[in-house]
Amino acid sequence: MIQEDPLPFKTVFAWCFIILSGLIAAYIAFLSLISVWVGFTHIYRSGSWVPILIGIVLLTIVLWLYFRLSRTILRLSNRKEEGIINSIS
Predict the structure, then answer these.
(1) Residue 33: which of 16, 51, 9, 6 has the closest Cα?
(2) Which has the closest alpha carbon to 30: 64, 63, 65, 53?
(3) What is the rounded distance in angstroms from the CA atom of residue 1 to the CA atom of residue 55?
């Protein structure tokens, strides 16, 4: 019997990678939210804007990278391979 999908585990590995990268992104997002919280709790001190700014910038970058990476991996895992010659070039 010939399977239609040449790499049946490709989507499984793609989803595992997306879940793993989601856990890492959630951890970094948690740290950035803690940074923002620390900045707001110490608002009376000079320089309290630095953890707020860094937390917001880090959260934005991490979420943007995660969604771009997830979309790219899903698009590549759903693509059908025409043959080995087309996949090399």
Answers:
(1) 51
(2) 63
(3) 54
Structure tokens at 13: 């590995």
Q: How far apart are the first and last CA of the chain?
A: 29
Indicate the angle between helix axes 49-78 and 10-41, nearest 10 degrees. Answer: 170
Longest distance between any two alpha carbons in the chain, whole Å: 71
Q: What is the pLDDT of residues 18-59, one digit of tens each?
A: 999 999 999 999 999 999 999 999 999 998 899 999 999 999
- Of how many residues is the chain composed? 89
* Strand intervals (E) in 1-89: none
- What number of other Cβ atoms are within 10 A of residue 35's Cβ? 20
Helix (H, G, I), strand (E, B) or coil at 3: coil
Q: What is the pTM of this model?
A: 0.74
User: Is the CB of residue 68 less than 8 Å from the CB of residue 84?
Assistant: no
